[in-house]
Amino acid sequence: MSLEQISLIKPDDWHLHLRDGEALKTTVPHTARTFSRAIVMPNLLPPVTTVAAAMDYRERILAAVPGGISFRPLMTLYLTDNLATDEIDRLAESSEVVAVKYYPAGATTNSENGVTDIKHVMPTLERMAELNVPLLIHGEVTDPEIDIFDREKHFIEQVLAPLRSHLPELKTVLEHITTKDSVQYVSSENENIAATLTVHHLLHNRNDLLAGGVRPHFYCLPILKRSSHQEALIAAAISGNEKFFLGTDSAPHARSLKETACGCAGIYTAPAALELYAEVFEQHGALDKLENFASVFGPRFYGLETNSETISLTRQSWEMPDQYQLADDVVIPLRAGEAVSWQLDQST
Ligand code: NCD
Ligand code: ZN
C-alpha cells in the first residue's frame, strides 16, 4: 500500500439520508459509486413507520441505482410514540429492514413525529432488545432551556444512561456524535453500544460555521462544536476502537431551504464522503486505520459480513462542483468549488 494509492475493502455508510422522489436520481448514484450498503434514514414526510413502507421506499431507491453497480440499502423504521410491537416482530423477520431510528420529537429535520417521552416507547424498546433489533439514536434533548451546544451531553445523562441501565443488552448506535463526552461515554460502556462519526464533524468545528460570517452550508444537527471536541472525535476515529465507525449523515437540502432566514440543518457530503475521510486520516498519519473504520467495524457491529469487493483511492486533486441538481432545485455539497485531495479509482 503506497501513500499515493490506497485500497480498501468496499466500505458501507452506516447513516445516510437519501430523501425520495426525483432527489433519488442525485443522491443514490453519489453514494452507490463508493459504498456497498447504507443504512437509510426514515425521516421522510410522512415518516417510514412500517416494514411495508420501508420495502416500497427500498424499491424506489433501487430504481435509482445506476446500471452495473450493486448497492444494498439497509432500511430503518422511524420510532413514534405509537409504533406497534408487532411491527418490530415483522422487522426482525426481514433481512432488508434492519434497525429502528429514535428521533426525539422536534430535535431535527422531519422529527415532528418522533418520541415525545422515552416512557411511551419502552415496551417497543424492550421488544427490540429481546429480538436483537438495533436502536439508532439521534442523541439530543429538545428542551428549549438547554443550550444547543449542550444538548447531546444532556441527552446522554438524562435519556441514554438510564435507558442503558434498564436495557444493557439493547444494541444501540449513538449516531453522528459530536462531543468528547460522547466519545468517553461510548468507550466506557459495554459492547452493545457503538457510535458513528460524520466526516464534517471530523473536518470542521463551529468556527467554520460562525466566524467571519454565518455559513448555512455548515449548519447541521447536532451542531458543529468547538475544536477540542473535534479533536476528541478525530482521536476516536483513528483509535482503532471498533465502537467507532463511518456514518456520513449526508443530508441534502435544496439551496433555497439552506440560504434563507431560517435554514434547514444538514450537510451534503455524499459526492466525496470517503475521499474526505481519507483526508482526515491522512492528516493524522492514520491512513492504515481507514479500512477498519470504513469497512470492517460497522458490519461487525451489525452482525453482517464485510464486503468482498475492494476499492482504491488515488492521491489526485480534483475540484468539487459548485452544485448538483436536486429535484427542481440544486444542492450545495461540502467543499463546493474547492479541491478534494483523494479521488476514487473508477475502475475498481
Ligand atoms: C438531517 C436531515 O436533514 O435529515 N439533518 C442533519 O442536520 N443531520 C437529520 C439528522 O440526522 O439530524
Ligand atoms: Zn442523520
Question: Characteristics of this structure?
Answer:
348 residues, alpha/beta, TIM Barrel, eight-stranded parallel β-sheet, 33% helix, globular, binds zinc ion
How is the topology of this model organized?
Layout: E1 5-9, E2 13-16, H1 24-32, E3 37-40, H2 51-62, E4 72-78, H3 85-93, E5 97-102, H4 122-131, E6 135-137, H5 151-166, E7 172-174, H6 180-188, E8 193-197, H7 199-203, H8 206-210, H9 227-237, E9 244-246, H10 255-258, H11 273-283, H12 290-302, E10 310-319, E11 324-326, E12 329-331, E13 339-344
Parallel strand pairs: 2-3, 3-4, 4-5, 5-6, 6-7, 7-8, 8-9
Antiparallel strand pairs: 1-10, 10-13, 11-12
Helix pairs in contact: 3-4
Can you give a write-up of this model?
The protein is α/β, with parallel strands linked by helices. It has one domain: Metal-dependent hydrolases (TIM Barrel). 33% of the residues lie in helices and 18% in strands. It contains twelve helices and 13 strands. The protein has helices at 24-32, 51-62, 85-93, 122-131, 151-166, 180-188, 199-203, 206-210, 227-237, 255-258, 273-283, 290-302; strands at residues 5-9, 13-16, 37-40, 72-78, 97-102, 135-137, 172-174, 193-197, 244-246, 310-319, 324-326, 329-331, 339-344. The strands form three sheets. The chain has an eight-stranded parallel β-sheet with strand order 2-3-4-5-6-7-8-9. The protein has a three-stranded antiparallel β-sheet with strand order 1-10-13. Helix 4 (122-131) links the parallel strand 5 and strand 6. Helix 3 packs parallel to helix 4. It starts with a strand and ends with a strand. The model has no long low-confidence stretch (mean pLDDT 97). Bound molecules: N-carbamoyl-L-aspartate and zinc ion. Residues 15, 17, 41, 249, 251 line the site of zinc ion. N-carbamoyl-L-aspartate binds at residues 17, 43, 108-109, 138, 220-221, 249, 251, 265-266.
